Amino acid sequence: MTERTLVQKLASTPDGPVRVAGWVETVRDQKKVQFIVLRDETGAVQLVHPRTDVGENPVDDPIAAQISALTHGTFLSVEGELKADERVKLGGLEVKIGSVDVAGVAFPEPPIADDSSIDKRLDWRFLDLRRPEQNLIARVQTTFEHALRTWWIDNDFIEIHTPKLMASASESRAELFEVGYFETKAYLAQSPQFFKQMAQPAGFGKVFEIAPAFRADPSFTSRHATEFISVDSEFSWIDSHDDVMKVHEQLLIAGLTAVKEKHGEAITAAFGVEFEVPTAPFPRIPLAEVRRIVAEGGYEIPRADGDLDPEAERRISEWVKANHGSDFVFVTDYDSSIRPFYHQRHEGDGSITKSYDLIYNGAEISTGAQREHRVDVLIEQAKEKGLDPEELEFYLDFFRHGVPPHGGFGMGLARVIMLLLGLPSIREVIYLFRGPNRLEP
Ligand code: AMO
User: Fold this and answer.
1) CA 235, chain centre distance (Å)
2) What 3-state class would DSSP assign to 62?
3) What is the bridge-based pairing of β-strands 184-188 and 93-104?
4) CATH: 2.60.40.10, 2.40.50.140, 3.30.460.80, 3.40.50.1580. Which one for 7-104?
5) 42 labeled binding residue
6) Of 3, 160, 233, 359, which residue is least crowded by CB atoms under 10 Å?
7) Which amino acid residue places its CA nearest to atom 1 of ligand 1?
8) Any idea where the Aminoacyl-transfer RNA synthetases class-II family profile domain is (predicted)?
9) Confidence tier at 54 by pLDDT (50, 70, 90)
10) Which CATH superfamily is domain 125-428 in?
11) What's this model's pTM, rounded to 2 decimal places?
12) Which of the four pLDDT bands, split at 50, 70 and 90, describes residue 57?
């Protein structure tokens, strides 16, 4: 049997015998000639079968009968003759069918169409993922993750895998998933926060992890999932959160450069987005200043001393784009009252933390900070937040046996991809979305 050629490779394959395999996108069953558009994971190709003139006896053209019976979505393997032909709109080539081998028949009525609602499409996610745009999203994410990993490895970071089953909360008591654990109970990790920090007293220096995180967040926004991939890094010997931001922006530049090089044109064709690779340094604006800018722009943040709401994020992003030409902005120096106990506070002004949120194209993608590594201060801050230091003993021990100053960040992978491609929801970019009312498929 002729070896299978991927559709993408046909353009560089000489005319002659080939075998292609994929699923039926369309069939045009005409009187004299039949066409199939066959798609595989790399693209689509036109297959052609000129009907044999069989007069009153159509069974004498068994291939024609086979093609007429094909349903949309059926997986086929086809042997035939490849021929370059400029007149063919789809890729300037076609394959004249020699034989058709049906591998997996599809029901005649596809359960979803291109204009189905996102919920319906997610019900049939494996069919939805056959769309070329979905294939591209998955490739963009692959390239992005690979580039991040390469950057970390080139810069001597160690990859860690922290447990997702935990005895206590990792971010906050709210939004915690509880699971039965033999005679007791466990919690799903909301973040690798404590254990990536543990790598610092462990003497690892610089670490990263790309792994799931779980939040029992009941909201139905376009940017929240109950399970998401968290891109995390943590490293020692920093002087402030500015050192964390420097790593963060270099990492993102590496990731976006790779995506631009490999998929820039395809992204523009599929999503109409012409994204720019950012340059360092990204603008840095303290939160107090952001509040002022947003207020001057005529928007009242609902809670004056609270976090930015989505509208404020959108507005500061717009302002930064207009005034600094940047798609990214680090909003720095968050109030201690709205940050976790482990964020280090400014010397001389304990009301603000050495922390930041990174906003990209209008929405938060990341939180980072220098961590408090002085155990007495850490205990005080935990108590102030209403936490019981006894429950945190395992974590506090990290800081009792020698630890360097350190910091890091966590970044939501799906949010980055969504905002990069200008898509309306993370549901579009997550392989299988998990939300309050979605556990299947
Ligand atoms: P934070 O809670 O801000 O910080 O989370 C970091 C980033 O993770 C993403 N994210 C989510 N993505 C999808 N669905 C969710 N429910 C969800 N929740 C969070 C966001 C967010 O910016 N430990 C700290 C990070 C650190 O300081 O290192 C943390 O988890 O993109």
Assistant:
1) 23
2) helix
3) unpaired
4) 2.40.50.140
5) no
6) 3
7) 367
8) 139-441
9) low
10) Bira Bifunctional Protein; Domain 2 (3.30.930.10)
11) 0.95
12) low
